[in-house]
Amino acid sequence: xxxxxxxxxxxxxxxxxxxxxxxxxxxxxxxxxxxxxxxxxxxxxxxxxxxxxxxxxxxxxxxxxxxxxxxxxxxxxxxxxxxxxxxxxxxxxxxxxxxxxxxxxxxxxxxxxxxxxxxxxxxxxxxxxxxxxxxxxxxxxxxxxxxxxxxxxxxxxxxxxxxxxxxxxxxxxxxxxxxxxxxxxxxxxxxxxxxxxxxxxxxxxxxxxxxxxxxxxxxxxxxxxxxxxxxxxxxxxxxxxxxxxxxxxxxxxxxxxxxxxxxxxxxxxxxxxxxxxxxxxxxxxxxxxxxxxxxxxxxxxxxxxxxxxxxxxxxxxxxxxxxxxxxxxxxxxxxxxxxxxxxxxxxxxxxxxxxxxxxxxxxxxxxxxxxxxxxxxxxxxxxxxxxxxxxxxxxxxxxxxxxxxxxxxxxxxxxxxxxxxxxxxxxxxxxxxxxxxxxxxxxxxxxxxxxxxxxxxxxxxxxxxxxxxxxxxxxxxxxxxxxxxxxxxxxxxxxxxxxxxxxxxxxxxxxxxxxxxxxxxxxxxxxxxxxxxxxxxxxxxxxxxxxxxxxxxxxxxxxxxxxxxxxxxxxxxxxxxxxxxxxxxxxxxxxxxxxxxxxxxxxxxxxxxxxxxxxxxxxxxxxxxxxxxxxxxxxxxxxxxxxxxxxxxxxxxxxxxxxxxxxxxxxxxxxxxxxxxxxxxxxxxxxxxxxxxxxxxxxxxxxxxxxxxxxxxxxxxxxxxxxxxxxxxxxxxxxxxxxxxxxxxxxxxxxxxxxxxxxxxxxxxxxxxxxxxxxxxxxxxxxxxxxxxxxxxxxxxxxxx
Length: 801
Fold this sequence. Notes:
Elements: H1 2-16, H2 19-48, E1 59-66, E2 70-73, H3 77-86, E3 92-104, E4 110-117, H4 121-125, E5 131-132, E6 146-149, H5 151-158, E7 168-171, E8 174-181, E9 195-198, E10 214-218, H6 225-242, H7 244-247, E11 251-256, H8 257-262, H9 265-297, H10 299-307, H11 312-349, H12 363-398, H13 408-443, E12 454-460, H14 469-484, E13 489-495, E14 506-513, E15 525-531, H15 535-539, E16 543-546, E17 560-564, H16 565-571, E18 581-584, E19 587-595, E20 611-615, E21 624-631, H17 639-648, E22 655-660, H18 661-668, H19 670-704, H20 706-714, H21 719-748, H22 764-790, H23 794-799
Parallel strand pairs: 4-9, 6-8, 15-20, 17-19
Antiparallel strand pairs: 1-2, 1-10, 1-11, 3-4, 3-7, 3-10, 5-8, 6-9, 7-8, 12-21, 12-22, 13-21, 14-15, 14-18, 16-19, 17-20, 18-19
Helix pairs in contact: 1-11, 2-9, 2-11, 2-12, 3-6, 9-12, 9-13, 9-19, 10-12, 11-12, 13-19, 13-21, 13-22, 14-17, 19-21, 19-22, 21-22
């Protein structure tokens, strides 16, 4: 232990004698370690830390599959009841549906985000109430009206009242009894959920073919996912036989809840983690180069220690101690940088991170940081320590000699490390370039509508106050008319499912006239929008054929329907839908127009989904609508006026989910932005470190060659000759690094294929641009010490020892 303390004291004194070297090495390591710590804190929170539920590994998300939903879709309540009754692998199962509640009775109506759930919801998640109780089986009755509050909603809306349990509140104009308050640690499906109510559904009001619920289940401790899936498949097969009209091609898919929450984020996070690992390698190589340069200056000191009897092991241990002290200080500073980096990640991509995870620098992250700090210290310190110690022993044996730092082996090692830094930096720059290109292309995809100058908002009404569809339609139009009266508002469109709002409704249909023959397995399902006459003009959706809706398309007129180009091409002869007829929801509709395609929720989709539009005054109107408000001025400056006008029609119907359409589109590419921005940051750091590395090596080489350069100048060498000598020396290694980096990038970037849109992983322009950028940076790093060498006074240079 005394020897260790002695080594530590000596290491600290040695680093203190060279503050410039120490500061550069520490900052270099801090960047690499801090970046790794920040990304690992996200990886640990999303992929490694258990979900905040009891035995979370037993939880699964349940989806219904079928031709109407694709790989996964919402669940029919009838089918859910059969799954729950007839399976043994998941003893606990619950269904829930998203709901927004209007809370009245206070100074102003307020919107609460919540769920309608079955009584098994909280037991399935293994959660109990902090106050009162959760739901019991009797709460599944159709006439039950009970609610459980989130801890945050209890504090914010009710001031943490101690008598909250048993209190009656008015939700959607109906009385609900509050039976419990959840702990602050509970949040499902997201921290934004403020209230849960029962019952989840009323079976007498829906057909088996209606799919609108979500479901979760808890597997028995001894049950595997494969066994649970097999048993659910058997139940689905029986239902397909028993109910062929609704379930002929229907199935069940069980997905681990963590996988459901993480989705494609797992792959993107692992790619980013690999990128910061490369940054750490460059930082370690830079630190190793700094140690090699410093070792050359300390060779006489090491030779004296060797002459006094220090062994190779003793010398190496002392030098490694210095490396580990550097790494430890860099790691401590890296933790501070990681806290800032974590905030950057959350600010850039917080919308794509699962809501149930909390990113923080916790003990596990600190343990990871300590581990990589030690490994980094050993990584960048071992080779220089061995080389330094052996060189010192050789010098001691010769009892003299020149600087070992000028030897071929030392020079070759330093240049090799610098070339490796350039190769790794080039891979990161290429990856960043590909992702930035992909993000730019995705953000500039033609959506089929004009998002600029548009404010969007949502209003919902209670079915108890607005039981008739026609009354709801009149109310929505009254709100649209009130907003349209605001100076600067040009159009106000109303629609049940706004693009990029997270809301989607589909309906099956049949082509009665004008259709073309279809294969028997083609599903005649389409997105179904109910809109007011101004919707298309407000959104900037073009009329392709026929006409748009007018105020005359009301309940007394022949039902009219408009389809988009995708539906017209796919289901009508010669793509001519106008004058054809569709049967939707048991009624015949005349196709009066065709409009341009518009994307709904996926910018990267190859085409738009088949979509049909019906007039809000002619169709069954949902208890909610979105308004698309087209304005002639800066839309952000008009949000408050639009919100206020929307609520003037009825103070008990709040306007919510207010945002610019541009912001909705930004949210749709938040994941791609996170990947592109972070990899660009890592690429820039790698580029800077590589430049510092090549500059340091060339600068030191010039120092070692001072006499040679002075002699050349004395013999008549011109400035260009000296520049060519110095820059050419670095350029050879830089070219080798660029060549190695290009070859490696051709392999590595194929991993990014899943993250790219509209650009190939081997894009020639990106590779060429990255190579030219690295070449320019390397040449600039070589040119600076080259200019200094060219200006040497030959007399001064030749007098140096």
